Amino acid sequence: MSNFIDFSSAKKLHDMQVNQNKINHLFGIKYPIIQGGMIWHSGWKLASAVSKAGGLGLIGAGSMYPDVLRENIQKCNAATDKPFGVNVPMLYPNIEEIINIILEEGVKIVFTSAGNPKTYTEMLQKEGLKVAHVVSSTKFAIKCEDAGVDAIVAEGFEAGGHNGRDETTTFCLIPNVKQQISKPLIAAGGIALGSQMKAAMILGADGVQIGSRFAATTEASAHDNWKNHILGLNEGDTHLTLKELAPVRLVKNKFFNDLEEIYNGGREADSLKNALGRGRSKKGMFEGDLEEGELEIGQVSALIKEILPVERVFKNLLAEFEAAKNPQF
């Protein structure tokens, strides 16, 4: 499905409030659009393409060995002079080594998630980095504010990948969080169109983080089997599962059904860990095994019907944003 509108109309965006928008000013970007640091998708090609298009590209450290992360940072630096960052899920191993590589390679922006925002925020800021942290509830957003992060990403449970246990939707979460914090706020989860971006900003977000739409781009590092599979997904084809370990939204496939059998047998945590312990996410999204692999994508995947280059995704987002008029009463 193509929602492309003549990009010339985007001049009416006033460069998306480039001089006034908090997110643009904080990260030195043209548009308040951040690409999610998705595992097995977010290598240097995707991050640099997003940054060159005027957003903020993120390298996804969660699926990279330390030496692979270093290589991706260096290649991203060579590919663009625009700002980019690294997404660091704090539940993964080698976290200290990952942080050291980020500092050694001169990265200026870090998005952390799945952990305590106090752990690295102050240290990174003292080294001159901007730090954003991803949360799934107002309670944790307040903790982020107390930890002194530079920006907060509030992610609804529509999002793909690791998720919150509360199952709060993005459009309920954003206004709740906005009432409780003063830091710049980024909405995530269920955003793939410019109209959805505008809705999130009307509700109080200063910008958006988009994952699933960028997963189905030519620059994403995921396997073509997986990218093409995304195009055929419909409403109800994803489900939030594994709450006993770390909640994650998955596409229903053979692997998902195998997990369901474990649930039916008593929800044993050890059995669930054993089922996950075979590189399932790499097998699915990076190697293209659509039956035995773990396939992470958001509910908004039902709107994605084309694999597009990042530049075209941006043109569509901005034109759709302009075309989505505020309601009149």
Question: What tags apply to this protein structure?
Answer:
329 residues, TIM Barrel, 15 helices, single chain, alpha/beta
Give the helices and strands, then pairings.
Blueprint: H1 14-17, H2 22-27, E1 33-35, H3 44-52, E2 57-60, H4 66-79, E3 84-89, H5 95-104, E4 109-113, H6 121-126, E5 130-135, H7 138-147, E6 151-155, E7 161-162, H8 170-180, E8 185-188, H9 194-202, E9 207-210, H10 212-215, H11 224-230, E10 238-241, E11 248-251, H12 254-264, H13 269-276, H14 280-286, H15 310-323
Parallel strand pairs: 1-9, 2-3, 3-4, 4-5, 5-6, 6-8, 8-9
Antiparallel strand pairs: 7-11, 10-11
Helix pairs in contact: 3-4, 4-5, 7-8, 9-15
Question: In a nutshell, what does this entry contain?
Answer:
The chain has 329 residues and is an alpha/beta fold. 40% of the residues lie in helices and 14% in strands.
